[in-house]
Amino acid sequence: MSLLITEKQNQAAGDFVDLIAGRLGSGRAIHPETAIASAARISGSLLLRSFGFDLGSSEPGTALLSNEANEKGPALISLLGAFLAENQVSLDPTKLRGATEHRGTEPNLTTLESLSLLQAEALAVAARHSLSLQQAAEAAALATAFIVKECSASIGGEVGFNVAAFGFVEGSKTVPPRLEEVVKPPASKPWYKVW
Q: Which distant-in-sequence residues (6+ apart) come within 8 Å of 140 by Cβ?
C-alpha cells in the first residue's frame, strides 16, 4: 500500500512530532506509550472535529459514537500500518490487537489530559499548513506512525501499533475539552519518564 500524503501533510507531520516531543518530554526523551497515545488521540480528535458535530453541547470526555468515526477511523490505522510496512517495521500479526485493547505500559495521560495539552497547538499546525481537519488527522496519524517506528526498538512495534490504534479510537469517539479548558495531569503522577 502506498502512502498518499501531500507535502503539506508531511511538513505538518513533522510539526506534530515536534509538538509531542516538546510538550511531553525533556528534550526528545519521552515515555513511548504516552507519546504514541497522545499523538494518536490528537489524530482521532482532529478526525472527529472534521465531522462537524456540535461538540460544545456535550460534556468533555463523553463517548460520542458515530457512523462517521466507524467509517473513516480505520483509514488512520491503515495509514499507520502502511507507514510501518514501508519503513520495514515488522509486526507479528498474532500480537496485534488493534483498536480493541493494548498491552504493555499504559500511557501516563488520560485522553482528556492529552487532548487538553495538545489540541490548541494541533489546530494551529493544521491552520499553518492550510490543511482541512481530515488532512490534519492524516498528518497526525503519520506523526504517530513515525513515533511508533522510533520507539519500536524499545517497546516493540506491536505494542506501539496497539497503543496507536486504541488512541485513534479514543480520540475519534471522545468529546474533546473545550479549547479554553485546561485539564492538568495529577501532580502525584509523573507524565514522562526517561528511557
A: 12, 13, 16, 39, 40, 42, 43, 46, 122
Tell me the per-residue pLDDT of 109-149, one tens digit each, with 9 for 90 and over.
999 999 999 999 999 999 999 999 999 999 999 999 999 99
Domain assignment present for residue 117? The answer is yes
pLDDT per position as a tens digit, 91-105? 888 888 755 454 556
Beta strands in the chain (DSSP E): none
Domain count, the chain: 1
C-alpha dihedral (133, 31, 94, 65), degrees to nearest 10: -40
Q: Name residue, grid cell 485493547.
A: 101
Asked if residue 161 belongs to a domain, the reply is: yes
Q: Quick check: is 177 in a domain?
A: no
Q: What's the predicted TM-score (pTM) here?
A: 0.87
In a domain, 180, yes or no: no
Is residue 69 classed as helix, strand or coil in its secondary structure?
helix
Q: Domain range spanning residue 114?
A: 7-172
CB 126 within 8 A of CB 117: no
The tens digit of pLDDT for each residue in 41-63 reads 999 999 999 999 999 899 999 99
Contact at 8 Å (CB) between 86 and 149?
no
Number of H-type helices and E-type strands within the chain:
6, 0
Compute the half-sphere exposure of residue 113: CA atoms within 13 Å on the CB side of its CA: 16
Distances (CA, A) of 33 to 127, 147, 177: 27, 10, 21
